[in-house]
From TrEMBL, chain A:
Name this protein carries in UniProt: Sugar ABC transporter ATP-binding protein
Location of this chain's protein in the cell: Cell inner membrane
GO MF: ABC-type maltose transporter activity; ATP binding; ATP hydrolysis activity
SUPFAM superfamilies, A to Z: MOP-like (SSF50331), P-loop containing nucleoside triphosphate hydrolases (SSF52540)
Source lineage: Bacteria, Pseudomonadati, Pseudomonadota, Alphaproteobacteria, Hyphomicrobiales
Keyword list, A-Z: ATP-binding, Nucleotide-binding, Transport
TrEMBL record, chain B:
Organism field: Metarhizobium album
Topology in the lipid bilayer: Multi-pass membrane protein
Biological processes annotated in GO: transmembrane transport
Membrane spanning stretches: 12-33, 76-96, 108-129, 141-163, 184-209, 240-261
Alphabetical list of PANTHER family matching this protein: INNER MEMBRANE ABC TRANSPORTER PERMEASE PROTEIN YCJP, MALTOSE TRANSPORT SYSTEM PERMEASE-RELATED
Keywords, in A-Z order: Cell membrane, Membrane, Transmembrane, Transmembrane helix, Transport
UniProt protein name: Sugar ABC transporter permease
Keyword Zinc attached: no
Family membership: Belongs to the binding-protein-dependent transport system permease family.
InterPro entries in the record: BP-dep_ABC_trans_perm, MetI-like, MetI-like_sf
Entry's localization field: Cell membrane
GO cellular component terms, semicolon-separated: plasma membrane
Annotated ABC transmembrane type-1 domain residues: 72-262
Amino acid sequence: MGSISLQKVSKVFGEAKVIPSIDLDINNGEFVVFVGPSGCGKSTLLRLIAGLEDVSGGKVVIDGKDATDAAPSERGLAMVFQSYALYPHMSVRNNIAFPLKMAGMPKEEIDKKVSDAARVLNLTDYLERKPRQLSGGQRQRVAIGRAIVRQPSAFLFDEPLSNLDAALRVNMRLEISELHQQLKTTMIYVTHDQVEAMTMADKIVVLNRGNIEQVGSPLELYRSPRNLFVAGFIGSPKMNLISGDYARAQNAATIGIRPEHVSLSTSDGDWRGTVTVAEHLGSDTFLHVNADGVGPITVRAGGEFGVKHGDTVFITPDKSRMHRFDDKGLAIPAAA
Amino acid sequence: MARKVTTRRKLVMTAIAWVLGIMIFFPILWTFLTSFKTEADAIASPPQFLFFHWTLENYHEVQSRSDYFKHFSNSVIISFGSTLIGLIIAIPSAWAMAFAPTKKTKDVLMWMLSTKMMPPVGALIPIYLLFQSFGLLDSRIGLVMVLTLINLPIIVWMLYTYFKEIPGEILEAARMDGASLMKEIAYVLTPMAVPGIASTLLLNIILAWNEAFWTLNLTASKAAPLTTFIASYSSPEGLFYAKLSAASTMAIAPILILGWFSQKQLVRGLTFGAVK
């Protein structure tokens, strides 16, 4: 229940090849996040799985059965949309009950399932309201409720949190993760936010221009990005990428070093630099340093590291955590 | 920051609105009052506003001279008929253009609208000749056809803008929730589209009811609607203001009552596209 396999799936819109060819296996119960910059094809890929778009080539296999030509309603998947897509003329109760009604379930059973879902999602007091009378977070819950009642073989989330404010987003992120722990159902989640990807995923699929750049667990991607794109996309603040003489000295076209893998001193170190901006977050301090002969470098320092604009600092990269990339942007495996 | 609205400003605005409202309403009020006057009072100078001899004589006279109910039923058949046929053609076309647009959709819409830019009199001769050869002159079916065609662009445009407002994601959600096409139409589409269709229906009934150019030119007596009924009092024996007013009042009363009871839908219809 809930394994999905994409085999040489491609999608062409008119002249534009949005997805050239993708192979991907999603195991039952996995939380998979598609992440990438806007226009990378992640939403299209989700819609191909949902059946809302037809594939131009290749196969979509759901639970071992070829579902390439199946209508969305026949695929047994539930989807949560970015705009929530609630039925405006129906009460919350009827919104949640809709998929069950479509499945022809008896009324008593529907009532029971709807009240169960409402309890889980804290919507019991709002069941008779219309969607327009709810806040953004509540609407999002209704959309999730509508998806969970019918126990689909997989959930598809299309940037579900991007319409919420920052605080609510963190909350809902937790709630969705908890939901996944409870239900243990396959979830595919599309986002452009690498923080959501890192915090929620079992497996991250990094997409760029319709191609898969890398697939792996959050820490795999963090520790060993396969190329420059993944290196720059995963991690916050972004990895420092240094090319030029320093990189050549290490036998690489580009050197990557994460802000947290650089040590900082006010007295001595490998590189001397001037602080351009110091961002004090309380728990951390992000320093933007202009290092002599290397260029701008972001450094993560302790929360109460007392430097300010214009101060001179010395920085030393942790050589064992350095990433080396060749002139094609591919990672060079570390010499054993 | 919200603009500060002073009491004085509010008073001035309210006064202007009332003046405009009365200016627009006055001719209708005057017609209504005149319909209860004698012919002599109707042309009296200076005109009398309320203090004249009230009489129902004009209404008796009008009804005895021409059959109001025949014209009334013609108007009903022509306006409802043309609107319903228009809707039957327009709903699927507007639907297709709103939900499955192609590169040419905008051009097709523009082209349809452009037919409304030509003065109707430009097409009168060919249509009159066509009607003559097909024996459609002075027939209700002919008028229904012409008014359907005349109002079709407006119906399609109105429906198109309404359907455009229905978010595609909601229909996709219904599909994901397991709804077949028929169920999607019954449970999701129709309830969301009905307000728009209702406004379009109302507005077009009113447009067709009031349409005077084609109804006057293509009918004589059998199929003549209320517009012809009014017009028949304006010329033959010179002007009889009181009777003309009585006929006008009788002609506009039904549509006015319909409009009154459907104000909310109508306002939405008239401002279509402008109000989200």
